[in-house]
Amino acid sequence: GGLTARGKHLVVMTHIGPYVEYWDPSTWNSPEGNEKAWGDFLQKDFAPLFERFGVSVVISGHSHLYLRGFRGGVAYATLGGGGAGLEKGEENRVEEFLQRDRRVLHFLH
Questions:
Q1: pTM of the prediction?
Q2: Which of 64, 71, 89, 109 has the fewest CB atoms within 10 Å, i.e. the most exposed one?
Q3: SS3 state at 28
Q4: Burial, 103: exposed, middle or buried (Cβ in 10 Å; 0-12, 13-18, 19+)?
Q5: pLDDT (tens digit, 9 = 90+) per residue, 50-108?
Q6: Pairwise CA distance, residues 90 & 76, whole Å
């Protein structure tokens, strides 16, 4: 999966990805902020489309760290370590989906 008939990759970019693992737990789980609902929405409605249409990689931000992994044949990368302070670590873990994470400053070019 991940390559089109022309041999090109399909890349999706979104601010909040479907597999957010780190964020402020108080806003992630609060009825007022309900940021978890966005991740749930992407998992339920978009992740199956990513798989169905052969998306190579989904790149997102939102969480201030580096995170990567595969689900359903799609690579997911959170590249949010280039702005504000990094996530605090395990105290900010709200979910666990992917295989690799690091709290490092980084950029993509």
A1: 0.75
A2: 109
A3: helix
A4: middle
A5: 999 999 999 988 777 778 888 899 998 888 766 666 666 666 665 667 666 555 555 56
A6: 20
